[in-house]
Design brief:
It is a single chain. The protein is α+β, with helices and mostly antiparallel strands. It has a domain of about 160 residues: 2-enoyl-CoA Hydratase, Chain A, domain 1 (Alpha-Beta Complex), CATH 3.90.226.10. Helices cover about 30% and strands about 20% of the residues. The chain has 17 helices and 19 strands. The strands form six sheets. A six-stranded mixed sheet has the order 12-13-14-15-16-19, sandwiched between helices. The protein is globular, with a radius of gyration of 22 Å.
Length: about 475
Amino acid sequence: MKKPWKFVALLLLCALCGNHLLLKAQAPRREVAFTIDDLPMAGDASIIEEMQAVTRRSLSAFGLLGVVCALAQEQTKPTSLSPAEREARWREDLQFLVAGLSAPGNTVDFRRGISTRGQKDFEKLYPKASFDAEIKALGSDISKLPDAEVALRLARLMASAHVAHNLVQIRPRNGFFARLPLTFSWFADGLAVTGASPDYSAALGTRVLKIGTMTPEQLLSAVTPYISHENDVWLRVEASSFIRWAAVLSHFGMIDADRGVLLTLEKPGGAPFTLSVAPADPRVKTETVAEGLHVAPPLFLSRPGEYYWYQYLSDSQTLYIQYNACANDPKLSFSDFAKQALAEADAHPVKRVVIDLRHNGGGDSRVIGPLKSGLAARLQAIGHVYVLIGPLTFSSAVDNASELRHSLHATLVGEKAGETPGGYGEVKFLTLPNSKLVVQYTSKFSEPGKESDALTPDVEALRKLADALAGRDPALEAAIAASP
């Protein structure tokens, strides 16, 4: 059973901090984690760039990277611990982690049923010999490692299970504070800069050719072991935020003697140029492609931050429904929203219904029920149903897309999702007592879907950098043009 997001509290926290909420679904199908940020944190720029005030994402993130809204309070602070005390505290954290992940027995929840107390299939996902050896080696190395490096080692260990929900949420207090004042996003044709602070506005809308001495693909290969993922789609989503952190760039030798990172960039139709970018306070104001380059956002980016909304497109007789969170908006329950959307369908000639899940990172898979049943009762009147999916479609949203394809014979349009239905879920959390690192693990398993590693659209519609710079939405265009 999927657990609804703690959305209201996060929105309040976001408002207090003066930041935007980016919903990135990081804990699929049972519980979702977030990163609160004033920048889009990852993913297809198309989905995130102008969604700055919004949606998703990320959890984590560093997968991964924890709640950044409390940055003012979470900055790394001087500590009076002696080296021996620091080592002892980290070793206590490691012992706590091992005990939590390997805890025997089950727990029972009346809503979610039976789940394991510790990690489901612990020794299958984390073979005992290699897991114990890594914990022992890390314990021995603590005196030589700064906190950020310890956190990276733990992130690599959790990611070794190849389960997208098994990860470490890193907080600024653990050495992850400064980051590049840029937003990176992967498109079908490569990595691009989709957000930048005023000092680096020249980078906005450019393609990234190199970061330091590495191409984006080379750097992606280097960071892969540290990022929890089950497919290449989600790896790229997470990597686009992961590679911004100064601690990560320092780990891979990307920061030069002047404390900057040399980027090689290229504007469409222009010659390559270099730009040295210094890591900065993550609260530095940035502009998106839409803001900085004055690009009118397409429909799917026009109402950031909302749980769900609809619009009737009279020119194509399409009822467009955007469903951004598998959760109930405190201001309007989804069942009431579904009644309104269905009433709109009844009031107009409708040739097709388009349900957009491209910003939806998951939550409670049951929430969509009223809309699904209402559409099922109107299939003869509303035409075909199309479901838009993409890299940020994750968790319960993936399940919903699969269910709509099965129950309503919906056609999936867009790009591969961040995962496939099924797999490890029912996320639980361990907060390490001293470092306060939060470790996610999974306590249930369900058989994966037929797709090998990702839910795949029936009609592929890739979004490229040129589409973002022109404010186009190939997926919606394809859905409107398609014949069922």
